[in-house]
Amino acid sequence: MRITCPLCGARDRREFTYKGAALPVPALEDGVAEWDAHVHLRDNPAGPLEELWQHDMGCGAWLKVSRNTATHEMLGVALAQDAGLAIEEGQS
Question: What residues contact residue 27 under an 8 Å CB cut-off, 6+ apart?
Answer without folding.
Answer: none
